[in-house]
Design brief:
- The protein has one domain (18-59).
- The protein has a two-stranded antiparallel ribbon.
- The chain is 13% helix and 23% strand.
- It is α+β, with helices and mostly antiparallel strands and 60 residues long.
- Bound molecules: zinc ion.
- The site of zinc ion has 8 residues, from loops.
Length: 60
């Protein structure tokens, strides 16, 4: 019996995956995954994007 949600061999599912900040798609080992890390008020803020296109849309 194979669990269909764990066939990637990782603990990332659509429920635990980060969401794209622009289109809200869950990011499950996307090869085009982009991460923006900033320091805000002394703590680290991480923003995820599914593609570089969403990443550049965020900048506008
Ligand atoms: Zn996106």
């Amino acid at each position: 019996m194979v669990d269909p949600t764990s066939d990637l061999g990782e603990d990332v599912t659509e429920e635990t995956a980060p969401r794209c900040a622009v289109c809200s798609e869950p990011i499950v080992s996307e090869p085009t995954h982009r991460v923006l890390t900033r320091i805000e008020d002394g703590s680290v803020s991480t923003t995820h994007f599914c593609t570089s296109a969403c990443r550049s849309e965020w900048d506008e």
